[in-house]
């Protein structure tokens, strides 16, 4: 595993239950331009294709995350920004 992927994994594994983050928030935290608790900037479950069936949504619902009918998470309620909670070494 590359150093970059290890850093991404470290951030993703730090996401608390019942919270989500975005790819952009992780990239900003890691200083890079450009899992089931990661959604896109609109709160959409774009990573669903990497999970069987509806596993991504089901896991998040088990953690208390609620969705709109279009598989969207309300980021104003569930957003977790690593730059606010973690310190880069």
Automatic annotation (TrEMBL):
Residues covered by the Methylated-DNA-[protein]-cysteine S-methyltransferase DNA binding domain: 4-33
Query: A Pfam family in this protein?
Result: DNA_binding_1
Q: Which GO terms describe its molecular function?
A: methyltransferase activity
The domain of life is: Bacteria
Keyword set for this entry?
Answer: DNA damage, Methyltransferase, Transferase
Q: Does the keyword Transferase apply?
A: yes
Please name the GO terms of the biological process aspect recorded for this protein, alphabetically: DNA repair; methylation
- Name of the protein this chain belongs to: Methylated-DNA-protein-cysteine methyltransferase related protein
């Amino acid at each position: 595993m590359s150093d970059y992927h290890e850093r991404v994994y470290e951030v993703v594994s730090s996401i608390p239950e019942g919270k989500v983050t975005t790819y952009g928030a992780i990239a900003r935290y890691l200083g890079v331009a450009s899992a089931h608790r990661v959604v896109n900037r609109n709160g959409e479950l774009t990573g669903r294709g990497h999970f069987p069936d509806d596993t991504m949504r089901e896991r998040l619902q088990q953690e208390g995350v609620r969705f709109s009918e279009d598989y969207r998470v309300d980021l104003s309620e569930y957003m977790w920004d690593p730059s606010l909670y973690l310190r880069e070494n």
